[in-house]
Amino acid sequence: MPRFVQPRNHEAGTIKESLNPNWNTLPVGDTSNPQGETLSVAATLKSIVKRLPIIKEIVSERDELRRHYGFVPPGHFYSPVPSLKEIRRDEAKIFENIPHHIPGIELHESEQLKLLEELCQYYESMPFQLHQGEGLRYYFENTAYSYSDAILLHCMIRYLKPGRIIEIGSGFSSCVTLDTNELFFDSSIKTTFIEPYPDLLLSLIKEKDKNKIKIIPQRLQDVSLHLFEELEVNDILFIDSTHVSKINSDVNRIFFEILPALSSGIYIQFHDVFFPFEYSKAWIYEGRAWNEAYMLRSFLQYSSKFSVVLMNTFIRQFHESFFLEKMPLCLKDPGGSIWIRKW
């Protein structure tokens, strides 16, 4: 006999029960058709439709809803999309009282501050301006990769002096990489950009870049692992993914295959990760159901091969005075990036 679970109320569960009766009694166990019904439920429903053709339209509409929403609607406790009603109820617990420490993760607070002291020397000679300057690709006043994230990427490239940089996801961050490479390394750093939708990147780079850089216009899932195995000590893997772990996603490929394949001494930057590994309230309420930050938090809690190097939102939360005194532009847009290193 299948077990039936009575779900809680959920914000997205406003579909009439008559259109989808099984959303209120969801079978847990073996199913036999694409709608996830047990044999007995499917057979009974089919028999009723034959005897009462008037409900055929209702059942067809229900099946269409299932094809659109899947197994359960958004907000259901079986759905990866959260219930906004539950989030509002627990809002204070989720978004307030930010902890100084994360269980299982060594944030290396003093080491982060020492690294920032080192990076200050590069901050002073940073070439970027609010708006696009002559000969530059990057400028601060953009909505994708601004101020703090860009400043620290620029400084980290100059500090690490990598031989290779691979970007997963591209755009304004790529402009930071290319400008820094051109101005301070005579374009000697080998740069690769994995971007299935490269139109933005192509619109931002210079014509001469097209012969110097490598653009892979493919999904990360289709890119050879060998590319990442070529990275060496102090090289950089920049990650700005879809931010969603799901079946066959780029995020799964990153955690399950790419990170384990990296050699020791490589630095990895994840974009759109905020302390304390939670997404902003505004993003949640606008419907972003991203979960990469939760994957990364769990990964770091139980990994001895990777350690936190720098997290700009952590520093801003607990050492804002440092940015105010020595890197004030970082406060114009705090960004959301974390740098880790493989040992």
Arithmetic mean of pLDDT: 89
> Might you state the CATH topology name of the largest domain?
Rossmann fold
Class derived from helix and strand content: alpha/beta
Which strand-content bin applies to the residues?
5-15%
Biggest sheet statistics = 7 strands, mixed
The CATH architecture classification of the largest domain is 3-Layer(aba) Sandwich
Total strand segments = 9
* Contiguous uncertain segments of 5+ residues: 1-32
Tell me the span between the first and last alpha carbons.
Answer: 51 Å
Rg (C-alpha, Å)? 24 Å
Estimate the global geometry from the Cα principal axes: globular
Helix and strand sequence: EEHHHHHHEHEHEHEHEHHEHHE
Number of contiguous helices: 14
Output the CATH class name of the largest domain: Alpha Beta
Helix content estimate: 25-40%
CATH homology-level superfamily of the largest domain: Vaccinia Virus protein VP39
Spatially, the strands of the biggest sheet line up as: 5-4-3-6-7-9-8
User: How many individual domains?
Assistant: 2
